[in-house]
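Mods, move this if it's the wrong board.
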Amino acid sequence: MVEHYFPGRSPLEGVQLELFSEDDLRAMHYATMQVFLNPGIQVSDQEARNLFREAGCEVDDKAQVVKIPEFLVNRALRDAPSRFVLCGNDKSKDVAQEHKGKVNWTCFGTGVKMCNYESHGVYKTVDSVEQDVADTAKVCDWAENIDYFSLSVSARDWAGKGAQDVHETFTPMTSTSKHFHHIDPVGEDVEYYWDLCKAFYGGDEEEARKRPRVSILLCPTSPLELSVNACQVIIKGARLGIPVNVLSMAMSGGSSPVFRAGTLVTHNAEVLAGIVLAQLTVPGAAVWYGSSTTTFDLKRGTAPVGAPELGLISAAVGKLAQYYGLPSFVAGT
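Not the wrong board. C-alpha cells:
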C-alpha cells in the first residue's frame, strides 16, 4: 500500500485551511436540499429517472426533472463507503482513498496537444496520439510522487473511429503498474473497460470485482444536469464494482453564482445527485466527491484551473466531503 501524508496533523506535516465553519457547511447542505426540491435536477437518462422514481422521487419525464427528498440523500450518504482502495498491479501499488486521512496525487488531464521539443525553447505543438498516452503513463509509473495514473492526454489518432475511449483504457492499463483512472469514459463502452479489467485477471470476474484496476470519472453538466452519458457511467460503474468519481466543473460567474458559497451549493447539488444515483443503483458503491470547479474568466471566456479561486473552492470542497464522510478528489495542488 502506498503511504502518504495526513493533512493538517501538525505544522510540519500539512496546512489546514478552514474556510467555512460547521454551521456554514450545514447551511450549504440545507440550501442544497432546497435546490433538490426547487428547481430539482435535470436527469436526461430514462433509466436513471426510473431509479429515482422507484426510490420515491418526484419525477417529471416531460421536463426530465427529478426532485430528490432529503431522506434519500441521507440514505445515500449512509450507504456510500468512507474508504475504498484503488488497486494497482499488486498490493504495493494500491492507494487508499479516505474521507479524512491521507493525501494522494495523480496527474492532470485530459490534454489534446503535445509539445515536441526540437531544441531548448523550440518546439512544435501537435495533436496527442496513442503513443503519447503510453509514454505519459510510463513516466507517471516511474514518478514516485504520482500515486495513480489519470488519463493525461487523448489518443487523437483514434478520434472519430469509434473506439478512442477503449484504446485510452487499454493503453494505460498495459503501460503502468499503477491504478488507472479513466477521466473521459463513454457510458455505452463501460462494459469494454470491464472486459479489459477482467482480462488482467485471466477472465476471473470475482477477482476483478475484488481488485478493479480501473476507475471512472464523470462530470455533471452545470448547472444542475446529469446527462445521459453521466448517468450511464454512474449506473454501469456501480453495477460492475468500478469506483466512480462524480466531479463537478461548475464555473463561478458562468454556470454558477459568482459568490463562492453559491457556487458550492450548485456544485454540491450536482455531485450529491450523482452519488445518490450510484447508491440507488448499488448501495455501498465506491464513489468520490469530486471537483474541478473554478471561476469563469470573463475576459478570456475560459475556466482557469490555475486560478486562486480554484484553490479556495477545492479547499472548501474537501471540507464538504469530510462533512459527508466521503473521499474527495479535487483539482489543483
